[in-house]
Amino acid sequence: xxxxxxxxxxAINAMLSEMYQAWADNDADGFVRCYTDNATAILPGSxxxxxxVIRESMAAGFDGPLQGSSTVDKQLSLRFVGEDAAVAxxxxxxxxxxxxxxxxxxxxxxxxxxxKRDGRWLVAAYHNSPLHAPAHA
Length: 137
Fold this sequence. Notes:
With 137 residues, the protein is α+β, with helices and mostly antiparallel strands. The chain has helices spanning 5-24, 28-32, 51-63; strands at 35-43, 46-48, 70-80, 85-95, 108-117, 120-130. It has a six-stranded mixed β-sheet with strand order 2-1-6-5-4-3. The longest helix has 20 residues, at 5-24.
């Protein structure tokens, strides 16, 4: 049985757009709506071990240093692993209020793992790291 991957790509990208809009709206609940219950997010110095932990972290960020921010993300690749899983690699970063571009030193590479559950694509895991390794003194 063949499966239309173009349809899946469109669905994944629509889901990501929904997440980016929730970020721009500083809406932690909307942001994690696209995560599985047992999703993980690994960021430098941080492991967020469930959708609820991710939501709590984002809510605190939106009430603090992330207030008024948005995120940019350029997909570099997307590949499917079987019928119900996909992996994407992207480049992006956070735009803080008043910025129109992410400064080079804040750009990141990210890996996304997507899982299709009940016909809907969700984020099962996310990991990011700085685009450039820190300079050593």
